[in-house]
Specification:
Helices cover about 40% and strands about 25% of the residues. By secondary structure, the chain is α/β, with parallel strands linked by helices. It has an eight-stranded mixed sheet, sandwiched between helices. Strands 2-1-3-4-5 form a five-stranded parallel sheet, sandwiched between helices. Strands 6-7 form a two-stranded antiparallel sheet.
Length: about 425
C-alpha cells in the first residue's frame, strides 16, 4: 500500500528524467525492487526490463506495480510495433543494469544481443550504468575483470560491487551495492549528466555524442601515471625490520583504475602479496630509500603522480649486517628520518599533477588538511588507518581547492575509480583542450 501511495504522489508531476532498469538473473534481483521504489520516490521515471532468467527471481507484476509502467520482457512483443529495443531506449536518459551478472557483463563487453535487454543496451542512445553482482570467484576471474575493463573503456559506469556475505554462503567481493547506495549513485549521475548537457559547448550534438564528450573528460588515454603502493621495510638487522600493516590493496586498485581509463601506469611497489595489475610497468622496492630512488628516476616522464604507499617515516641509523643477538639489557635503536617522497615530487620546478594520501588514526580532517597545505598538493585523499589498512573496503575524503568530497564506504577498486575520475577532472582543468 505504501508503494502505491508513493507512486500516486510521484505521478502528480512528470518525471524530470527516465531510466530503464535492467534486471538480470541473479539472487540480488530482489534489491532491484527497492531500488526502483527509491528512484520513483525521487521523481525519476523507471521502466523495468527483465531477462527471462530474472523472472525466476522477481516477477514482472512486482516491478510494474512499483514503477507504474509496463515491464519490458520480450523483444518480439508487438505492443511497441515490434521495436521495443529502439523506442524504449530512445525515451531513456540512462540504462541501469542491477544486478548485472557475469554472463550479462560478458554480453555487454562483446556486443552480443540475443534478448531484449542486451539489444536495448546495444541500440542505446544514452549512458549505461552497471551494478555487478556475483560470487567472489566469478568476480575475481580474469575474464570478468577483462570484460569490466572493456566496459569502462567503452564508456560504461561501473557501480560497485562491495565485499560481504553472499548467497552461496561465502564472503568476499562481488556483492551488489545496497539499494540505498545505488539509488544515490544513479541520482547523482543523472544530475551530473544533466548539468553537463546544460553547459555543453556543443548543444546541437546528439545526446550520445554529448555523452562521449563528457566521458572523454574522464578518460586518461596516453596520460602517464606514476603510482607508489604498499609498505616499505627498513632493516634493523639481517632478519628484523620496521614496517607497517599496509597491504597495498588501495595502491594496486588505483593502478588498475588508471589502466581502465587508458593511462600508461608505472607502479612502484613495496613488499606485498598482491598480483600486479596486468598492463602496468612494475618496479619492486623494499625500503623507503629504494622507493625514493625509483620515483626520482621516473618522475620526469610522469603527468600525474599518486603517492598511495605507506612509506616509513624513519629508518635505522646503523642497521646490522648480522642478526643482533638477544642480550640482558635494553636495545636502543637510533632512527633517522626518511625522505619525504610526496613533498619532493610536489616541490619539483615542473611537478606532475600530485595526489597524496593521508592515513590518520584521529582528527582526520584537521590532519589531512594540514598535510595537503604543507605538501602543496592539489588533491589529497584521506582515510582512517584503523578502518582501511588491510581491509577490502574503505571510506575516503578528498580534499582539493573546492573543499571536501566524501566517497562513501565501498570496495577499494570502486573508490579508486571514483578517485581517478576526480583526478582526471582536476588534471584536465589545467591542461589545454
Amino acid at each position: 500500500m505504501r508503494g502505491i501511495m508513493e507512486q500516486t504522489r510521484a505521478k502528480r508531476t512528470a518525471p524530470e528524467t527516465r531510466i530503464i532498469l535492467g534486471i538480470t538473473g541473479g539472487i540480488a534481483a530482489y534489491k532491484a525492487a527497492e531500488l526502483a521504489r527509491l528512484l520513483v520516490k525521487q521523481n525519476i521515471g523507471v521502466r523495468a526490463a527483465l531477462t527471462e532468467a530474472a523472472t525466476r527471481f522477481i516477477t514482472p507484476v512486482t516491478m510494474q506495480a512499483l514503477t507504474g509502467r509496463p515491464v519490458l520482457l520480450n523483444q518480439w512483443d508487438c505492443a511497441e510495433n515490434g521495436m521495443a529495443h529502439i523506442s524504449a531506449g530512445r525515451a531513456a536518459d540512462a540504462i541501469v543494469i542491477a544486478p548485472a551478472t557475469a554472463d550479462f557483463i560478458a554480453k555487454l563487453a562483446h556486443g552480443l544481443a540475443d534478448d531484449l535487454l542486451s539489444t536495448l543496451c546495444l541500440a542505446r542512445d544514452c549512458p549505461l550504468l552497471v551494478a555487478p553482482a556475483m560470487n567472489k570467484q566469478m568476480w575475481e576471474n580474469l575474464a570478468t575483470q577483462r570484460n569490466l575493463a572493456q566496459l569502462a573503456a567503452d564508456g560504461a559506469t561501473v557501480l560497485g560491487p562491495c565485499s560481504g556475505a553472499q548467497a552461496c554462503g561465502e564472503e568476499g567481493m562481488g556483492r551488489m551495492l545496497e539499494a540505498e547506495e545505488l539509488a544515490q549513485e544513479v541520482a547523482e549521475f543523472l544530475q551530473s549528466n544533466k548539468s553537463m548537457n546544460a553547459i555543453s559547448p556543443t548543444p546541437t550534438l546528439p545526446r550520445r555524442e554529448r555523452e562521449l564528450v563528457r566521458h572523454s573528460d574522464e578518460r586518461l588515454d596516453g596520460v602517464k601515471i606514476l603510482v607508489t603502493a604498499g609498505p616499505t621495510y627498513e632493516a634493523i638487522d639481517a632478519v628484523r625490520g620496521i614496517t607497517n600493516r599496509s597491504s597495498g590493496k588501495m595502491g594496486y586498485a588505483v593502478a588498475q583504475a588508471a589502466l581502465e581509463m587508458g593511462a600508461e601506469v608505472t607502479l612502484v611497489s613495496g613488499p606485498t602479496a598482491l598480483e600486479k595489475p596486468h598492463g602496468t610497468q612494475a618496479v619492486d622496492v623494499i625500503s623507503a630509500a629504494e622507493m625514493f630512488e625509483a620515483v626520482k628516476q621516473r618522475v620526469a616522464d610522469a603527468d600525474i603522480f599518486i603517492g598511495v604507499a605507506a612509506v616509513a617515516d624513519y629508518r635505522v641509523a646503523q642497521p646490522s649486517a648480522q642478526k643482533i643477538k638477544k642480550g640482558e639489557g635494553k636495545l636502543t635503536l637510533g632512527l633517522l628520518p626518511n625522505p619525504d617522497i610526496l613533498a619532493y615530487v610536489a616541490g619539483l620546478p615542473q611537478p606532475p599533477f600530485c595526489v597524496g594520501f593521508a592515513a590518520e588514526s584521529e582528527n582526520l580532517r584537521a590532519h589531512a588538511a594540514a598535510k595537503r597545505a604543507a605538501k602543496k598538493v592539489p588533491l589529497l585523499a584521506a582515510n582512517l588507518a584503523q578502518q582501511a589498512i588491510g581491509a577490502d573496503e574503505n571510506e575516503l575524503i578528498l580534499f582539493d581547492d573546492g573543499g571536501e568530497h566524501l566517497l562513501p564506504r565501498a570496495d577499494k577498486l570502486a573508490q579508486a575509480r571514483a578517485l581517478l575520475r576526480h583526478t582526471a577532472k582536476l588534471y584536465r582543468q589545467g591542461k589545454p583542450r
